[in-house]
Amino acid sequence: MRGEDPAAIRVLDLNEPETRKLLESGGSFVKTDVTNKESIARAFEQAWPNHVRTLPLTVFHTVAYINPSDRNAAFLLPYVSVNIEGTRNILNAAQKAGADCFVATSSASVGLRIPSYFPWPWQRWPKDIYQFLPNADPTSPDLPLGSYGTCYAWSKAQAEKLVRLANNDEFRTGVIRPGHGIYGHGVENPNSLTWQYLSRGGSPTWLYNVVAHFVSAENVSIGHLAFEDALLKKDSRVGGNAYCVLDPNPPIIYADLYRALLILAHPATPIKFPKVPHIVMLFMAYGLEQYHLLRNKFLPSLPALSKDLTFLQPAVFNVSALHIVYTDTAAQNDIGYRAPISTLEGFALAMREWNEKVEAKAKSKSDAVSDMHEDRVVPQPPMIR
Questions:
Q1: Is residue 151 situated within a structural domain?
Q2: Where is the signal peptide (predicted)?
Q3: Are 112 and 131 in contact (CB under 8 A)?
Q4: Residue 20 in domain
Q5: Best exposed site among 59, 240, 254, 372 by fewest CB in 10 Å?
């Protein structure tokens, strides 16, 4: 959209992008595993088209293993191999390839403090269920796993440290921290908050009144491009820094999200958000976590938790059941970040994309049925008088 030659854009991933626009317009895709150094080397060594091969090189690192339900060291392996070592591998390959700048995607969850949901009788509120986090800065990237709410947040904090320390005059680096929940980056994407709810037809919830700072994936991409621009200008303030990016409006509550989905969802995909008691679900979460640990460590023959039950664990409460307010003032002041899409507008855009795909699938099915009936029509002989 900013006029870049698609031939100068290359996607490295395990799977081809579902959005075909880039590939159809001349961009390229290379199947790449960030945990495999040989796979990365092959991807970076592939020749570029002649007319773009002398252009400067920017690397946007958006790879992650994302699962908010784990907080025990027994489940760390995929987070370490993908989020930490994978980042290290890409950093090394980018430097070897002579990249000018490197912008990595982290998470605002690196700044969250672990809440205590069970206050003493004389305390009015549980500890740290209200958090104000300017720029989503963590207390320290060197804190142990137990100081973070999830394995994911801890691994992202370690990856941030690698990226920020790699910054120098020849190789400019930085980190973007998207806000509390990302939505809108392609309808069929399990990491999109709106898609998760729509694909499941809603969910029982205890979050109606919870305050959250969401961010559109399109706004996040604008944050990446703004950071790239600042790094290429060699602004001494920004190299090696991390910036939180948000939608350009005050935080909303989950009820606003639910209302938008309820009103705008296609009639063919109805959605519901029945209320359930928070404390009951929290106690259930602790029980499920113990079962999950028992199965992982000692009894792998036990049935695995279903996908929905996997997300009903205390770690998920540590990132979703808090009232959180971030700020992106630093990103606005330092890298010129300006987000154009408000949260409710972003929800509406995501819903339009969802509804259009539902309509397209319904039409395709209707056309197929119509063709089948036409094939079955038996021609009748002409009437004879």
A1: yes
A2: none
A3: yes
A4: no
A5: 372
